[in-house]
Amino acid sequence: MRRLRVFQSLWSMQPHDATGEKLPLDRVAGMVADAGYAGLAIDLGAADVAIAHEVRPYLEREGLTPLIVAFPRSVESLRETLIMAKDFGSPYVNVVGQVFPLTVEGAIPVIRKWIEMSDQIGMPVQFETHRNCITNDLFSTLSLLDAIPEMRLAADLSHYLVDREFKLPLAAWERGLLSRCLARSDSFQGRVSGRQQIQLQIDFPQHAPWVALFHSLWEEGFADWRTRNQTGDMVFLCELGPPEYAMTGPDGREMSNRWDEALVLKSVAEEIWAELGGDS
């Protein structure tokens, strides 16, 4: 059976909206569970391992699945995170590798070593399409995919829209590059970007063309995932970050309510999934 599982991000919940209030971890877990999310991503770039252990009992209490997001700063340091993630019951580790050689040739052995660790420990890894890491650039990531057939992605294409400063409408060859990423992606992330901003408010009228683009990318990615997988869980992670990801006005306050926006993205993912056949 195939299932859609929508996750929220702990990073996105600290704070979760324009009030700036950082809720205690037990309230965060309760709020996420009450909203119908399947789990909570624990971002080890924004929180340390101690926080992961602190939030764990609240996730277990609420029936939420933890998803570990790793930012390894050395090749070997990922091993400990993989072991921790397996103990936590994470479905996979989302890797944002902070080891990033300047060339594709230099990056290939790093990726291969991390995949080897994954196989040894029995914890799947997905490499997030993310700036300032080993998948920093769309073009180099595509070269890595060509060189390493077993490399799987967690698609957060918001980074690549900014990275390449793509204009709308996308040219066919540009869309084709993104499609190549989607065809190698085993999970997807919910954020809408434009060519200059990493995180756009989804209900501002001027952002509607970008929202439409991301809806179409998620539709394509979900459909492709379903053709490749007759069973298993597909994760969609709502990851709307606080400032400086979130844009602020002259008073320093966020210009939209990220908690409400995440719920909209959750609904969008669920609607796309249902249109494609739902859990089946």
Automatic annotation (TrEMBL):
Superkingdom: Bacteria
Protein name: Sugar phosphate isomerase/epimerase
Species this chain originates from: Puniceibacterium sediminis
Record lineage: Bacteria, Pseudomonadati, Pseudomonadota, Alphaproteobacteria, Rhodobacterales
